[in-house]
Structure formats: structure tokens, C-alpha cells
């Protein structure tokens, strides 16, 4: 058998293994190129080269070339393993592109596992909500950091202080606040309009923002509280700002940058200093 054929077989298997690693993602919009997965595919390809050549030595008679392949594969394996473990070439955007498919796997397994115990189901649902929120946030941050919009500091909660359980229950950690998915039944408690615009971090979840299409009131859920918002701008245009004392929410259409992963971005700000952004889907007409 030709050594060229052997090399093409290993190369093809390596590429196929890289592609197969994405088959357990939950949705196609979660598929991002990942340096780490490239290194893992190369690592597995090098391992396959050693195993396959060891089993087929009778078909390859060039001892010098066989030794070179073994040594080369071991070197590639060691280098790939070091790159995976050290993450030395992985920047912030590369890290997030790798984490999105990883989070997507958690969504898929948590949603589709046959769970009976309500405690485990509650844990799985919390994982789903957290992973979807973080995927939308990472999509936003990839665009920010890749375009050079890097911040030097972010809001941090004050240091913990001694206190009682009552103090703990009444304390709100600003840094952990986040917009929660809001079912239509909850939105209707604030909005009267029949035609509404919504922002979803993921197509599979309830919106985190509901807005009257005519530019009236809007609504969000924060820390278990339904909050009414005033509207500035035209929600139907795809770009508008919604505000209440202490907070603002801005929605902006991505325009030409929109794709199958996201068509809009939402930035949530508190006057206390917290800012969080997400990329997702904005729709008017409900």
C-alpha cells in the first residue's frame, strides 16, 4: 500500500473527526470555529497514525520511513497536547468561539436527557438558562473584542461584610443581575398592545424584552420583578432605547452584519455601573 495513500487516509480521518466534534451541538448557530478542537483533531489524527501503522507494518516495508512516521506522530501528539493544555495561542475571541459549542452541548444534554427527579430537572433547567444567556453574551463580546472595543475594568460588588441570614436574603449582588426570559403571560401584565416587538437571546427561549410595536411601553424581568419601561425611538425600526429609573436597555439592529446566528444586539445597563450585552433575535409583529 502506498505511503501517500496512508497519509491521505490519516488527513481525511483528522478532518472528519474535527467535523464530527460539532455534531453534538444543540443548534447550528452555536457552531463556531475552535482552535482547541483543531488541536484535539490533530492529536487524535497523530494517535491514529501510530495505531494504524503499528497494525499494518506488514503492508509497509520501508523501516526508515516507518520509524520517521512513528517519531513524527509522537512529536505532533505531544505538541498538540501541549497546545490543548496550555491554551497558549487562544485569545479572548478564540476562547469564546470554543466555549459556545461547549455550552451548546450542555444545553442539548440538559434538555433532552430523560430526567425524572424534580431536583435534577430543576438543575438541568438552570443549566439551560445559564448556558443560553452566556452564549448570547459571548456572541456580543466576540464582536466587541474583535473590533477593538476592549474595556479596562467592569463593575464589581463591594467586599462581603459580616451579617445575618436576614441581611443575606435582603442583599442583591448587582454583578449577578441579569434579564430573565419572560413568558407572554407575564408581559401582558404590563403591556396592553396586541402587536409587540421582542428580543430573544435564543430562538428556543422566551424573550427577555417585550415592547409595544407602536412605541408605547416595554417590559423586562429583573431579579424576579416585572419592570415597565418607557420607549425612546421606534421599536419597529430595529433600533430603540427603553428606560426606567436606574436602568436602560438599548436594542440595535446589526444591519449588514446580521446572519443566521443573530440579527440584533441588546445592551442592558444599570446606573450602579453594571453593563451586559447580548446578540440575539429581534422580531416585531407578535
Automatic annotation (TrEMBL):
It holds the Pfam family DUF305. It comes from the Bacteria. Keywords: Membrane, Transmembrane, Transmembrane helix. The chain crosses the membrane at residues 6-26, 38-58, 64-84. Residues 94-153 form the DUF305 domain. The keyword Membrane applies. InterPro entries: DUF305_CopM-like (IPR005183), Ferritin-like (IPR012347). This is DUF305 domain-containing protein. It comes from Roseibium salinum.
Amino acid at each position: 500500500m502506498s505511503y501517500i495513500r496512508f497519509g491521505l487516509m490519516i488527513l481525511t480521518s483528522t478532518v472528519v473527526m474535527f467535523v464530527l466534534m460539532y455534531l453534538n451541538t444543540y443548534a447550528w448557530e452555536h457552531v463556531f470555529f475552535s482552535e482547541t478542537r483543531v488541536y484535539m483533531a490533530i492529536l487524535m489524527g497523530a494517535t491514529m497514525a501510530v495505531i494504524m501503522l503499528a497494525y499494518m507494518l506488514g503492508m509497509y516495508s520501508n523501516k526508515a520511513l516507518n520509524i520517521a512516521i512513528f517519531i513524527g506522530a509522537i512529536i505532533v501528539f505531544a505538541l498538540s497536547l501541549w497546545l490543548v493544555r496550555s491554551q497558549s495561542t487562544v485569545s479572548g475571541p478564540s476562547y469564546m468561539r470554543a466555549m459556545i459549542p461547549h455550552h451548546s452541548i450542555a444545553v442539548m444534554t440538559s434538555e433532552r436527557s430523560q430526567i425524572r427527579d424534580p431536583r435534577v430537572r430543576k438543575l438541568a433547567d438552570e443549566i439551560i438558562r445559564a448556558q443560553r444567556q452566556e452564549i448570547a453574551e459571548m456572541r456580543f463580546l466576540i464582536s466587541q473584542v474583535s473590533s477593538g472595543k476592549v474595556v479596562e475594568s467592569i463593575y464589581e460588588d463591594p467586599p462581603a461584610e459580616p451579617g445575618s441570614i436576614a441581611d443575606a436574603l435582603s442583599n442583591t449582588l448587582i454583578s449577578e443581575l441579569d434579564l430573565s426570559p419572560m413568558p407572554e403571560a407575564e408581559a401582558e401584565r404590563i403591556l396592553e398592545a396586541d402587536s409587540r416587538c421582542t428580543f430573544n437571546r435564543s430562538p428556543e427561549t422566551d424573550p427577555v424584552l417585550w415592547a409595544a410595536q407602536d412605541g408605547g411601553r416595554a417590559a423586562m424581568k429583573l431579579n424576579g420583578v416585572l419592570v415597565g419601561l418607557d420607549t425612546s425611538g421606534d421599536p419597529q425600526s430595529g433600533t430603540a432605547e427603553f428606560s426606567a429609573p436606574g436602568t436602560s436597555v438599548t436594542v440595535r439592529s446589526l444591519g449588514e452584519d446580521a446572519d443566521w446566528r443573530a440579527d440584533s444586539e441588546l445592551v442592558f445597563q444599570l446606573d450602579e455601573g453594571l453593563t451586559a450585552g447580548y446578540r440575539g433575535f429581534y422580531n416585531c409583529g407578535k
